[in-house]
């Protein structure tokens, strides 16, 4: 028996497939990787997921006609790419695909306006068309460029629970299906092209992996295939020293450890989906973040471990829209069971706590997701007095060996000594230092820290 081929998984984000030029670049980048058995994963064309979500909201209010009309410009964007880059027969077949999508979406949006099926289920089915169409289109474009591409439906590969909107993959089943379906194609020299973000529940209903979830799809597929590398192609050259929208002078970081990258992704570095790293970590697969507009640059390599730099700080991430809850109770003093009761409340409402800090008689914690804040606060009031503070931001300074470096905390805080800091968490992980400031201060804090450390 011949040996199996070890693939490179290449994921292209929305801005890497925004128009015909971008699609052509992707086909070129894939061609460059042809000898390494590429498996291609694509996001929806940029802005399409947002458009589908807003069409769903319009339909929900009862106006399914406007909802479907609002999608027309996006259908046209797809058709323009097809016209520019594929042959006549391909254009015709893609047009059939677009007509089918338009009919299906009309049906789904009408159902949403009549509420004839559960809305959360309809929403995922609707939003999945972004990746269904982009993956079909990219397959055609690759074929037109003489690549042996074949579209594969991710909904037959990635199995999830039925938490619509942000479903959890079921690893063993996903791993089996991906190996069973994709490895033979790879071994035969074909290039599978998959839509990221979309999956299906065991019952076969379409689900999605949460916003930005195509990175996660890439990591799952890469892990299942024990890929040589997972490449995340985006519109910036790797993971940068901070969000370039705040500091245009942000620089590319050469290497990051899995731990550093996870902290950055979790605390808001949008360039990677927070859950992306885990499947890669489990099988020690390198993840490379690179720029589809500058494909000759190496970008950032994410590896099991990385070197610490002289200044220790490698990057600064942030997340806005954070709410702080403070629970104080004299009962806490010297009692056990209090923390457990507190955590159980969050567990019941499936709400994740980001940062936590405790004193003798109070606990302060931060939430990103406030969907269930009312019932949570209701229950917390049985444990003590509760204060709520909206409009905060978490800032996370990341670097290997950060905890072990004396004087670093004072260096960080003296840089922003005139700004009020409401919560600090340092030491839970050796690679990060996290604190909370008012949302309106974020830009300034990051600029000052970036200035100090880079
Ligand atoms: P894609 O569509 O390729 O998935 P995203 O928009 O999800 O791209 O992520 C890329 C964006 O992440 C960049 O354009 C940048 O504005 C933002 N970003 C935030 N923090 C960072 C960071 N530390 N390094 C790189 N990009 C960052
Ligand atoms: N298209 C989806 C989104 O915009 C998934 C992704 O791009 O990763 O969230
Ligand atoms: Mg993304």
Please bin the fraction of helical residues: 25-40%
**Count of helix runs:** 15
- What's the domain count? 2
At the first level of CATH, the class of the largest domain is: Alpha Beta
Largest sheet: 8 strands, mixed
Please characterize this protein's 3D structure.
The protein is α/β, with parallel strands linked by helices and 454 residues long. The chain folds into 2 domains: 8-235, Carbamate kinase (3-Layer(aba) Sandwich); 315-453, 2-Layer Sandwich (VC0802-like). The protein is built from 15 helices and 17 strands. Strands 3-5-2-1-8-10-11-9 form an 8-stranded mixed sheet, sandwiched between helices. It has a 6-stranded antiparallel sheet with strand order 13-14-12-15-17-16. The protein has a 3-stranded mixed sheet with strand order 4-6-7. Helix 1 (20-32) crosses helix 4, helix 4 (72-85) runs parallel beside helix 7 and helix 5 packs antiparallel against helix 7 (129-144). The chain is globular, with a radius of gyration of 23 Å. It starts with 7 loop residues before the first strand and ends with a helix.
